[in-house]
Write a structure and sequence with these properties.
The protein is mainly α. Helices cover 61% and strands 0% of the residues. The longest helix has 22 residues, at 48-69. It starts with 24 loop residues before the first helix and ends in a 7-residue tail after the last helix. Bound molecules: zinc ion. Zinc ion (ZN) is lined by residues 3, 5-6, 8, 17, 19-20, 22.
Length: 141
C-alpha cells in the first residue's frame, strides 16, 4: 500500500510509515472501533412484552400518583399521552419512520395521531418498532 502522507510504498498493515514516520494503522482502527461502538450502543431491541409491561407500569404510576395527590387521573393520563405523542412525533421524523415497513403507522403523523387516539396500543407498539429501527432490524418499505 501507499503511505497517504509521503506517497512512498510501505507494507500492508503497517502502523507507522518507515519513510516519514507518520502513524497509519492506529487512526483507521480507532475510527473502526468508534464506529463499532457507536452502532453497538443503539442495538437494544425492546421486546413487545417489555413495551406492554412498561405501558401498564406507567398506567399504574398514574393511578397511584392520582390517588395520593388527589389530582384527577384522567388529567394526568392526558398529559402523559400528549407528552409521549410529541416525543414520538419527533422520534418518528428523526428515524424516518416512513422508510420502514409497518402495518400500523406508515407516516410520522400516523404515529402522533395513533398515540393520541389509541395510546394504550400505539405506545407499546411504537416503543418496540422504533427500537427495531434504531437497531437496524426493521424492514425497509
Ligand atoms: Zn510516509
Amino acid at each position: 500500500m501507499e503511505c497517504p502522507f509521503c506517497k512512498e510504498t510501505i507494507k500492508d498493515g503497517a502502523i507507522k510509515c518507515k519513510h516519514c514516520g507518520s502513524m497509519l494503522g492506529i487512526s483507521t482502527s480507532a475510527v473502526q472501533f468508534e464506529y463499532v461502538q457507536s452502532t453497538k450502543t443503539s442495538t437494544a431491541i425492546f421486546p413487545l412484552w417489555a413495551c406492554i409491561a412498561a405501558t401498564i407500569f406507567i398506567i399504574f404510576v398514574i393511578f397511584f400518583v392520582a390517588r395520593d395527590t388527589g389530582v384527577n387521573s384522567s388529567n394526568l393520563m392526558t398529559i402523559v399521552v400528549i407528552i409521549s405523542a410529541i416525543w414520538a412525533g419527533f422520534d418518528a421524523s428523526k428515524i424516518n419512520v416512513s422508510q420502514y415497513k409497518s402495518s400500523v403507522c406508515k407516516e410520522t403523523w400516523h404515529v402522533v395521531a395513533g398515540m393520541l387516539l389509541l395510546w394504550i396500543v400505539v405506545f407499546p407498539w411504537y416503543l418496540n418498532f422504533s427500537s427495531k429501527i434504531k437497531a437496524g432490524a426493521a424492514m425497509r418499505a
